[in-house]
Amino acid sequence: MTVTITPVSFSLWSTDRAAFAQALGASLLETGFAIIEGHTIPQSKIDGAHQAAKDFFALPAEAKHHYFDPKGAGQRGYTPFGTENAKGQSAADLKEFWHTGRALPQGSPYREFMADTPEVTEVEDFDTDTRDLFEAFDQFGGELLEAIALYLELPQDWFADKVDMGNSILRLLHYPPQDNPPPAGTVRAGAHEDINLITLLLGAEEAGLQAKHRSGEWVDVNPPKGALVLNCGDMLQRLTAGKLPSTTHRVLNPSPERAKFPRYSMPFFLHPNADFLITPLPSCLAEGYVGEPPITALDYLTERLIEIGLIKP
Hints:
It is a single chain. By secondary structure, the chain is of the alpha+beta class. It has one domain (8-307): Jelly Rolls (Sandwich), CATH 2.60.120.330. The chain has nine helices and 14 strands. It has helices at 12-15, 17-31, 43-57, 61-65, 126-151, 160-163, 234-239, 282-286, 297-307; strands at residues 8-9, 33-37, 77-79, 96-101, 169-175, 187-192, 198-202, 209-212, 218-220, 228-232, 249-252, 263-270, 277-278, 295-296. It has an eight-stranded mixed beta sheet with strand order 1-2-10-7-12-5-4-3. A four-stranded antiparallel beta sheet has the order 6-11-8-9, with no helix packed on it. A two-stranded antiparallel sheet has the order 13-14.
């Protein structure tokens, strides 16, 4: 069989919310992924953060390492090339990345679990540009969760007070150019699932993202220009007792003629609040899906960070 991911227009949300929720949910149910055209994230904010990422990763290694906290589990600031691996894989992914997290108010109880994002001095407007994109992603992600709630026959605002202080992360990813073309079929980022509730991803300059359908087929995820990719994370899968799957995905190495070009992407990992108890939804259990024991978002995140090598046991 040939599996394709049909884009869904966000404009439908303003005219027929039930129809948009159904279309979005149907795509997630089938593949764990959805492609959304007409998203509301301003192009100026996308361009600003994209340029900020390019400028930051072009800095000398010693300058970037100033923002690396070896005890921070890669949750804020810079993580060097070859540090993270996919769950169950010993080989490190061929990437370096930066994480911008939520700006918490002073006195927030979540400061116990969530560090501040370091300020970058070498790149003008880096902090402003990345913060602006974080907040735009956070707002749009909240709207998509409203649609997912409707699809799950929950109140539209069901997720609102469960993610308002979540440990969400904007990741700026850089896959450096490869001087020696890699063998065909090898990967830049190993097959993995995301940890969080949902992931929002703006189109990368270089192709390579694939999702593994339950049939075993690897499906190319190539959104049209200007579209956004959404996928379920493990926390949403656990919450829905497996109804909405956290689909395995990977990033293939480029063809030899494209290997000399870097790949940049900017995923946003939307997390629930640290103390949110991930408990299978009764409605999903009633449909015959099988749940797992309740666990807090913080405990689940910690388990997974150990599995992918960002926390050393």
